[in-house]
Design goal:
Elements (H helix, E strand, L loop, with lengths): L1 E6 L17 E7 L2 E6 H11 L4 E6 L4 H7 L2 E2 L2 E7 L6 H6 L10 E5 L3 E4 L12 E7 L7 E5 L5 E6 L8 E9 H13 L7 H10 L4 E4 L4 E4 L3 H22 L21 E2 L3
Parallel strand pairs: 1-4, 1-7, 4-6, 9-13, 14-15
Antiparallel strand pairs: 2-3, 5-6, 7-12, 8-14, 9-12, 10-11
Length: 274
């Protein structure tokens, strides 16, 4: 299974930085008994590996070689490939640049590397045989792609950054077989490669008779691409660490390491100032 990580964006909402936004330190973790800062994109890598991905691919822009230098050849035993998106042409263009590496019978996870979400094992709730979206309830769905489903979870429509969406459930990651990735790519090409957002392409896919499901398994979703989101992400990780400690019966001070696979906090958190 592949994990596709689109990391070609400029991070304009949180500039100036001296490095790629995907390497922004958020929280910390223990490594060989020592505490070290954790790059925000590591949380997505960890969730993908935990969700079954045994290969990762970063889609990067020219000049973002610091991501290659940071991750090198693998993460948690999963080999890493790097693909370049020469110009910022949107999420669809970034994802489909990896399509030639993926066979029809392989599976694909996609997520955004400047977000942190709970529960950490969210990808495991998604089925293997269809296009499926991991959904999170947020306070400002107009800043995201809101996913409208019926009672059975079948996706009816994706409302892309609409001012007044009819649901507050948005996608934070998705999964599909390689054959569906290739079908979406073919449709995208047929439509003149004009779809920037995955939501508009999926709407066209549904109109052609395709199907998708939305799984409302998400508890908390934070976009770390703004200063407020950055602060909220650290708070989310502290809450998760404290929840782990509470269950273990020990006290954890603020700023303690996030650890691995933290438990989800009990309250919902969502931040975006796009």
């Amino acid at each position: 299974m592949w994990g596709i990580i689109p990391a070609a964006g400029s991070g304009s909402r949180i500039q100036p930085l001296a490095f790629s936004k995907e390497l922004l330190p958020v929280g910390s973790r223990l490594s060989d008994g020592a505490e070290r800062p954790c790059a925000v994109s590591e949380y997505l890598c960890e969730r993908m590996v935990d969700g079954g991905a045994n290969k990762l691919c970063f889609v990067i822009a020219p000049g973002k070689s610091d991501i290659m230098e940071y991750y090198g050849a693998e993460y948690a035993g999963a080999p890493i490939a790097y693909v370049v998106q020469p110009e910022p042409r949107g999420l669809c263009d970034a994802i489909f640049r990896v399509a030639s590496l993926i066979t029809p019978d392989e599976h694909v996870l996609v997520g955004l590397p400047d977000t942190i979400w709970m529960p950490a094992d969210g990808y495991s709730s998604l089925p293997d045989d269809t296009l499926s979206f991991l959904l999170f309830p947020v306070e400002r769905p107009s800043a995201f792609d809101a996913v409208v489903t019926d009672e059975a979870g079948h996706v009816q429509e994706i409302q892309v950054k609409q001012e007044f969406p009819s649901t507050n459930w948005v996608w934070g990651g998705f999964k599909m077989p390689g054959r569906i990735l290739h079908a979406l790519q073919a449709l995208w090409i047929e439509r003149g490669r004009t779809d920037e957002y995955m939501g508009t392409l999926v709407n066209a896919y549904l109109a052609r008779g395709g199907s998708a499901v939305g799984v409302k398994a998400g508890l908390a979703y934070v976009d770390v691409g703004t200063l407020e989101g950055y602060r909220s992400a650290n708070e989310l990780l502290r809450e998760a660490a404290n929840e782990n400690a509470r269950i273990a019966g020990v006290h954890v001070t603020a700023g303690a390491p996030a650890g691995r696979r933290p438990l989800a906090p009990r309250r919902e958190i969502s931040v975006s100032l796009k």
